Amino acid sequence: MSTDPVQLLAEATRHMPLGVLDSYRYWGDESIFVRSLKGGGFTSTDGRSFVDYRLGYGPIILGYRDPRVDAAVIDAIQNIGTVCGFSTPMDAEVVRRIKKMCPNIEKMRFANSGTEAVMGAVRVARGHTKRDRILVVEGGFHGLYDEMMWRSDEDGVVPFGGGLPDSTRANVQFIELNDEDGLAQALASGPPVAAVLLEPIMGNSGSISATPDYIRTLRAACTAHGAMLIMDEVKTGFRVAKGGAQEYYGVHADLSTYAKAMGNGYPVAAFGGRADVMDVISFEPGGVTHGGTYTANLIALSAARATLQILDETNALETVYAVGRRHRELLGRVFTHFSVQHTFAGPDSMFGVHFSESVPLSWRDWKKTDAPLYTAFCKHLIQRGVMLEPDSREPWFFCEAHQEVDLGWLEDVAMQSMAAALDAHVR
Ligand code: PMP
User: Fold this and answer.
1) Which of the listed residues 118, 147, 202, 234 should we mutate to test ligand 1's pocket, taking the one with most ligand atoms within 8 A of CB?
2) What's this model's pTM, rounded to 2 decimal places?
3) Could you tell me the residue range of the domain that residue 103 belongs to?
């Protein structure tokens, strides 16, 4: 079988739309075919090695194929099983650990993906408030289900693509991050709001972050209007702090969603929050239904148990922050060397890089940054063995294994990449 990615993609195109099993993996002739992942990087089928700061969109917090997590999963598979459609004592054990790390959680349910976790949280918020309308902060991403596949642009609200009935946007209204007046107006007008949904640190908009003041105002406004505050911590959870963005801000949501880092790459997700809210999941009339064949399967649970134990009991996260900080400083030196105006958004474990004068405060600010230069920089980094999403809306993700990266090499490569990007870039 060929190892050449162009040939692999041509063959795959006969079997899958775009030749890939997930549309975001389609990079045309640059599509990547992985041979093997380990630690903070991987090799591709054509023998190239990459240090990887994309980390599969963020789930890898320890490293690829972390032997501690893998051993725990193998043990569970061999000694308990995979899927059983019944409860196990491990269920409460994992939730107890999450509650210890995230004091905003009183009760919880599991899911298989971030998308499913958001669906669960939104359904619970609606079931609890008996309201339908939700406010969503623009620039965030909350998964690929119809209601979340609308985004706000200068031209109004537009769908991510085809197949989305207009009716699926009827109960969604967008608000801008850090715009307190817009929030107040949206809450005060129209039908009562079931929930406000946001990524407090927008892992899908270059880690552009809510200000602490905005988060406090938002918390108070939701309480005043009887609306649920849902923080989508799919990217920030167990990454920006043990207790996620809510520890970072010192503000608790009513409901929160988690995925990614909680399983170091195993497919596991969860949503939870206030006990009185979560208890709407019941068989009472009007109670919310939640479940699924693969929900909290033993692969997912054992991976979460092992990953969370490491994050809670070792200094892994301190290592991740320290590694991220060194990378931020390194990039800062490179950009300064070339007199490229730059800012960093968000915390060191997942920062965004923006070529702008000041740190963007909303997705609209992001649109004014020199994102094309960032994309060009990334493309040159990729050619030189540094993997990133070439889109400044995706942050740099760090994992514990990145402590092994040769930063001298990286600085050289970043210098070469920025020089090449500027050569070609019409500013
Ligand atoms: N919420 C956020 C904040 C995310 O970043 C993502 C995925 N990038 C999702 C939800 C959806 O998660 P998944 O891809 O696991 O369905």
Assistant:
1) 234
2) 0.98
3) 67-313
